[in-house]
Structures are given as C-alpha cells and as structure tokens.
Design a protein that fits this description.
Blueprint lengths: L1 H24 L3 H11 L3 H23 L9 E2 L3 H17 L3 H9 L8 H15 L5 E3 L8 H24 L11 H18 L5 H8 L9 H21 L9 H20 L4 H8 L5 H41 L7
Antiparallel strand pairs: 1-2
Helix pairs in contact: 1-5, 1-8, 1-10, 2-3, 2-13, 3-7, 3-8, 4-11, 4-13, 5-10, 6-9, 6-11, 12-13
C-alpha cells in the first residue's frame, strides 16, 4: 500500500511538471507548423524532437529497471488505419487550432473553450467504436530489453537531444521574461517527465480518462487518470500564473463549436493510432514503434499540407483584393466641362 501511494505521488508530480512545461514551452504541433510557415522558424519543431529524445533516454532505463512496473509503449504496425487516423487527427487539430498538448497549455492560460474538448473527444471515441476501428499492438518494443540495438538507440537519442538543445540555444533572441523558461529547459522537462509518466502509468492522459469513462467494451476503470489529469491542468495553470499570462477568456459559440468538432476528429484519430500527438511524441516514437513513427510523421506532414494550402489561398485572395484596389485607383474620373 505504501509503495502504491509513493508511486502515485511520483506520477502526480511528473504530471504537474509536464503540464507546467507544456505551458512554458508553448508546446503544440499546430503552432510548430504555423511557426515554420509564417515565421520561417523551426524552434518548436526542433523542441518536439528534443522532447522525444529526452523521453527515450528516461523511459527505456526505467523499463529495464522494473521500477513501478514501468514498460515501454507496445509496437504498432504501419497500416491504412494508423495512417488514416493520423490524417484525421491532424485535420481535427487544425479545426481546433491546437493539438492535445496545445489545448492543455491554452486551457492553462485561461481559454475556457478548451474545457469542451473532452466532449468532442468522447464523440470521436464513440464513432471509432461504432465503425469497429481499433489499433492492435503487434509486439513489444525493440528497446524493451538492454542490448546492442537499445544501446545504439540511446546514443542516438542523446545525440539528437544535444543537437536540438544547441540549435535552440542559438535561436534565443533575448533574455526570457520573468518566470519564463528557456525553450531548451521546457522541452527537457517535458521529455523527461512525459517519458517517465508514460512508462509508469500509460493510461494517464485526459484523453484516456475520457475514453475509459465511456460505456465502451475496451473501457477500463482507472482512478490514476483522474488524479494525473488534475495535476497536469494544475501545472499548466501554475506556469501561466508564474508567467503572468493567465487571463480568463470564455470564447465565442463559434470557437466552442470548433473545439467540439476538432475534438471529435482528434478523438477518432486517438482511437486509431497509438494515442494522440502527446502519446506519439513521448511514448510511441521514443519506443521506436514503426506505426507510431509513421503516424507522427503523417500527422505533421498533414498539418503542414493543410496549413500551407490555407496560407496560399489567403495570399491569393489578398493579392486579388490588392489588384482590384489598384485598378480602382487607376480608373480616370469623370471628365470636367
């Protein structure tokens, strides 16, 4: 009993740190792609790579040690269902204007509309159950036991982390404001805390909590998720208060509608791929799951393609409007007497 309480205390602390770091780093797949397209910068994208590498460096040794029955994410094969689910998730994240990680961070900032996301997720999970799409792990991770391959993978993670942190440190333009972590610090804490919590308590996220609260065949009662979700949201709010960015924003009915629709599509995606983008970044990719890696790449490319197409369309419309305005100015006025 004492061991269980101690493990729960550790997991909740990790969840708090993860929520805190998400808000500090502005972590979001949609925001990362938006930064690439609109600002020609890839700091957030590199930050996600750093978080995955840090997660791998902590999750594998935890699994090998057997501490708290830690395990790496199971391997999922590459298939049409996984790829399709990643595309659907990406579209949902774009409609919602934030992925699961980004939604949590913005909820911490006081954007109340993201509190409606679990309702949308529930709709997506029910849709997956109705059509019978389910993900089926095909085996254990190749990093499940120490060995040459696992050792080389850890060296690779370490190299990626060092290079990513070097890049992020070189991109800093000014000294962070009071209470603001550097991008590198935020991503390291996110990776270490996220990697550890996914290894120790895989079903800890609010997406898992929603899924397991529904009357579905695969739903399993898990009291851990309620505590960890609360701790994660508390961490995000604490970071926003520390940075002085917390401000209650209710959002419009249209915003709430986008969150519900986007949440439904993301819920469908979560049900068909190895978790949402949080599970991909912090569990599936660090465990070198082929399906997880493929889903993450597909998701990011899909977000990139849709946002790039939208940006091109907006620029075309802006260009046409500017051309019409110029033509209007060049038209000669009425001739005088």
């Amino acid at each position: 009993m004492d061991e269980l309480v101690a493990t729960m205390a550790i997991v909740c602390t990790l969840a708090f740190l993860m929520g805190y770091s998400i808000n500090q780093g502005g972590t979001c797949a949609v925001a990362a792609v938006h930064e690439v397209l609109h600002r020609r910068r890839c700091g957030r994208l590199v930050g996600l790579m750093a978080a995955s590498a840090a997660a791998g460096l902590v999750a594998a040794p935890l699994a090998w040690s057997g501490f708290a029955d830690a395990n790496l994410a199971a391997t999922v094969g590459i298939g049409v269902t996984v790829i399709s689910g990643a595309v659907v998730f990406a579209i949902g994240a774009i409609i919602n204007d934030a992925c699961l990680l980004g939604s949590l961070g913005r909820l911490g900032n006081g954007e109340i509309r993201f509190a409606a996301l679990p309702v949308g997720l529930a709709g997506g999970f029910l849709a997956v159950a109705a059509v019978g799409f389910e993900q089926h792990p095909v085996g254990v991770s190749i990093l499940a036991a120490p060995g040459v391959v696992a050792g080389l993978a850890l060296l690779g993670f370490a190299l990626i982390l060092v290079l990513a942190l070097w890049f992020l440190s070189g991109r800093r333009q000014s000294k962070p404001s009071s209470g603001q972590w550097s991008p590198g610090t935020a991503m390291i804490v996110l990776g270490l805390s996220g990697g550890a919590i996914y290894a120790m308590a895989p079903g800890w996220t609010y997406a898992d909590f929603v899924q397991r609260s529904l009357p579905l065949p695969m739903a399993v009662a898990d009291e851990t998720a309620a505590l960890t979700v609360t701790a994660t949201v508390a961490g995000a709010i604490a970071a926003a208060c520390r940075r002085r960015t917390w401000r209650l924003r209710r959002g419009t009915l249209a915003d709430i509608g986008k969150t519900l629709l986007g949440g439904g599509l993301m819920g469908f995606g979560v049900g068909t791929i190895p978790g949402g983008n949080d599970g991909l970044v912090l569990a599936a990719v660090p465990s070198l799951s082929p399906g997880g890696v493929a889903a993450h790449v597909t998701m990011m490319l899909s977000i990139m393609a849709v946002l790039a197409a939208r940006l091109h369309w907006q620029r075309c419309r802006s260009g046409k409007s500017h051309l019409k305005a110029q033509r209007g100015l060049s038209q000669p006025g009425p001739a005088g007497d």
